[in-house]
Design a protein that fits this description.
Blueprint: H1 3-25, H2 34-48, H3 54-80, E1 94-108, E2 118-129, E3 136-138, E4 158-163, E5 175-181, H4 192-200, E6 204-207, E7 216-218, E8 224-226, H5 237-263, H6 265-269, E9 278-288, H7 290-301, E10 307-311, H8 317-322, E11 328-332, H9 340-343, H10 348-371, E12 373-378, H11 389-392, H12 404-424, H13 438-444, E13 450-455
Helix pairs in contact: 1-2, 2-3, 4-12, 5-7
Length: 458
């Protein structure tokens, strides 16, 4: 190898990893491939070199081992943090999406100390689209929300929805509306697997994002409101009391947000892409975790909502005590009702965790005794299986033993069936049985991973 070739190889081997790291910090590169790029540079160097002594051979062998480790590391990183694809919607319609900025002149924004402004919400709308050709919407709508480090590859994820395409003209009745409200610190796109599925089946889904809770509320003007809600409730009795107090405050704020969006539905319906195709009388709502609590409370205080669904969330506010008259569907992860011994455990963190589990059971019991309703337990699921999160990583993703794809398939099937029944008057075999015999329902379910209960209204 001549001197020029040698230095070209050195520059090549150093420059590529540096360029990759620059892109990683800019959040637009799949960092999982970095070990493979470094390994390729090493292989290229080894291919052009010939060891002439025992020491050189030892160094050559060490470099070869490092190269192999690099390829293995790249494969492992790509597996653990995949460049995932969202489930393909199963409905007849293509899916479109657009963001709409709404300002509430009746409320001041209390979470932005830098400026005096009215409460402002950016909502994401998913809807049946006239065509599936066009620019696929990114999973994270604004590049500023792309996380750094391990999850920077989320900036490369595309959804199934076409951005800013016109709505498909309804073939008969206008499209029912379903509102989505996210978890404690969640974003409006956290359940894209579910919002796209509903849109493909002829629904207009409006995803809310709540300033004062979401880490970054980003507006078209460039303004950003940062928030940092604590989710600690097990470390001490004081932490649990604080979370319950903040929870009531958040519930009031989010319920007002939901009612504000309900008030704005006539204007949203007249958006240039939606052409008045929304049914302003048939409106449902669903949410995950604390979003499920907000959905329940909104139903309790606003009869414009015809049906609601809570996915694995405790209840707060009046809904926790009195429920709501509308048809309501609970989904929950796979956990058993706490025993008396667990509720009295000397391990404070464990005891407080079990206490909240017990509250969830008591809340649902009171609801069913007064209003009836449905409850689905998804076997093998944990809390985050009711969101997109398990797709993002195969470690520490909040999901359980159930396959994320299977969990999403089941959740989507029951979500569509529930809103079809309540907002379109279409019956589904998933809800055909009115018994509360859990064992029989479990054995007869099309999904063996489901325990499904129906409670008749007294």
């Amino acid at each position: 190898m001549n001197r020029a070739s040698y230095w070209l190889l050195i520059i090549f081997s150093v420059a590529i990893p540096i360029a990759i790291w620059i892109d990683i910090f800019r959040a637009n590169y799949r960092w999982q491939l970095l070990p493979a790029i470094i390994a390729s540079s090493i292989v290229l160097l080894l291919w052009r070199s010939r060891p002439k002594s025992r020491l050189q051979f030892s160094l050559w062998l060490l470099a070869a081992i490092v190269a192999v480790i690099g390829f293995v590391a790249a494969a492992a990183c790509s597996y653990l943090y995949p460049l995932f694809t969202l489930p393909v919607p199963t409905g007849r319609y293509a899916v479109g999406t657009t963001a709409i900025d709404l300002v509430d002149p009746a409320r001041w924004e209390r979470c932005d100390p830098t400026t005096k402004s009215h409460r402002e919400l950016v909502v994401q709308v998913w809807y049946p689209a006239i065509s599936n050709y066009g620019d696929r919407a990114p999973y994270l709508p604004d590049r500023r929300s792309i996380p750094k480090g391990a999850f920077s590859h989320l900036g490369l994820i595309k959804t199934n929805a076409v951005r800013d395409v016109a709505i498909a003209p309804p073939t008969a009745a206008p499209y029912p509306i379903v509102l989505y409200t996210p978890s404690w610190s969640g974003y409006r796109t956290d359940n894209t697997f579910q919002t796209e599925e509903l849109a493909s089946h002829g629904y207009v889904v409006i995803g809310l994002e709540h300033p004062c809770s979401v880490p970054m509320a980003i507006y078209p003007s460039g303004r950003v409101i940062h928030s940092n809600l604590s989710s600690d409730y097990t470390s001490s009795d004081a932490a649990l009391a604080t979370l319950l107090r903040v929870g009531e405050e958040q519930l009031s704020l989010r319920t007002q947000d939901i009612q504000f969006v309900l008030n704005r539905l006539p204007q949203i319906s007249q958006h240039e892409l939606l052409h008045g195709a929304l049914d302003l009388q048939q409106i449902g709502i669903f949410g995950h975790s604390f979003g499920g609590a907000a959905a329940a409370e909104a139903c309790a205080v606003d009869r414009r909502l015809k049906a609601g669904m809570n996915m694995d969330g405790l209840l707060f506010g009046s809904a926790a005590q009195h429920g709501a008259a509308q048809p309501f569907f609970f989904m929950q992860s796979d956990y058993s009702r706490p025993t008396a011994a667990e509720l009295k455990s000397t391990d404070g963190s464990f005891r407080r965790s079990k206490q909240t589990d017990e509250w969830g059971y008591q809340q649902r019991d009171r609801w069913f005794q007064k209003w009836g309703g449905e409850n689905l337990t998804l076997l093998g699921a944990e809390h985050m299986n009711f969101s997109d999160l398990p797709l993002r990583s195969r470690i520490k993703n909040g999901g359980g033993s159930i396959s994320p794809d299977l969990a999403m398939k089941i959740i989507n099937a029951y979500t569509v069936a529930f809103f079809d029944r309540e907002l379109k008057g279409k019956q589904s075999p998933l809800f055909s049985d009115t018994t509360t015999n859990v064992d029989r329902l479990r054995s007869g379910s099309p999904f063996p991973e489901v325990i499904f209960e129906q409670h008749l209204k007294p």
